[in-house]
Amino acid sequence: MELSAATDAFADHLTRVRRLSPATVRAYRSDLRDLTASTGESELGDVDLEMLREWLWKATQRGDARSTLARRAAAARSFFAWAKDEELVTHDPSLRLIAPKRGRTLPVIASQDAMTGLLDDHRQAANGGDPVALRDHAILELLYGSGIRVSELCGLDIDDLDLDRGTARVLGKGSKERVVPFGAPARDAVAAYLSRGRPALTARSDSSTPALVLGSRGGRIGPRTVYTLVARVLGPIIGAETIGPHALRHTAATHLLDGGADLRAVQEILGHASLGTTQIYTHVSAERLVTTYRLAHPRA
């Protein structure tokens, strides 16, 4: 079978059987297309271990990050394991493929005081009644108040929210559903948006949608719009040139742990499959503790 055809079949398997997110499927497809271009091979069965190692070496020479190399190696291993199961190849050439270990860096977060100031500013802006200001305030409060992913926020429908209980039903990675709590400020911001902001945005579209958060034209909001919003308001506070909605998720998790939340409870809220993924936030809290100590203690 040709590599290109096998790649398409594998992407279909990831979508229909493993039910991975569209973004993950696109990344795997991109990695495998890069493999095809790098090896110069068109037939799946002609790819061997040395070709795979050469492929990763070329990516290293280009200056690709270790995280990218690790993802590409994982994509190749998953792809050839699937091909072997489907009897498209007689042996798996990726079994001994090793990529550099991922470098783990601590996530950048905002302080509690900074978040309080930012959200207070947006609450005051929303009081003017502008529908976009009302929406933006609700977005920021929900992202920070619940720690959900931007894709989960964009996928929310009105019926997914229980304002009385302060919970949202979200569809996470792997189409896994969970219920996450959010506090009174987020509930108030969402209620104000639903009563005064969303109707005005809905009127800008010819069709109705069950989506909770709407774009300026009245349709379901896209991740890029949310990314632009967060980058604009949070970047100057954190002091990073490139920042996205995930920074609010990092911030929410760290502040939960700083406040004494149980690590497993934070894992459930964030929807992490592995506790190890959540544990990075304990390191963030520890780093903040050390920094505070060194700044404040006379014998530090």
Question: Could you outline the blueprint of secondary structure elements for this entry?
Answer:
Layout: H1 3-16, H2 22-39, H3 49-62, H4 66-85, H5 112-126, H6 131-146, H7 150-154, E1 161-162, E2 167-171, E3 177-181, H8 184-202, H9 223-238, H10 246-258, H11 263-270, H12 275-296
Antiparallel strand pairs: 1-2, 2-3
Helix pairs in contact: 1-2, 2-4, 3-4, 5-6, 6-8, 6-10, 10-12, 11-12
Overview of the structural elements:
By secondary structure, the protein is mainly alpha-helical. The protein has two domains: 3-85, DNA polymerase, domain 1 (Orthogonal Bundle), CATH 1.10.150; 112-241, Intergrase catalytic core (hpI Integrase, Chain A, Orthogonal Bundle). It has twelve helices and three strands. Helix 1 (3-16) packs antiparallel against helix 2 (22-39), helix 3 runs antiparallel to helix 4 and helix 6 (131-146) runs antiparallel to helix 8 (184-202). The longest helix is centred in the last third of the chain and has 22 residues, at 275-296. The mean pLDDT is 86.
Count of helical regions? 12
Low-confidence stretches: none
CATH architecture of the largest domain: Orthogonal Bundle
| Helix-strand category | mainly alpha
Largest sheet: 3 strands, antiparallel
Residue share in helix:
55-70%
| Distance from first to last alpha carbon | 65 Å
Order of strands in the sheet with most strands: 1-2-3
Number of folding domains?
2
Order of helices and strands: HHHHHHHEEEHHHHH
Shape: globular
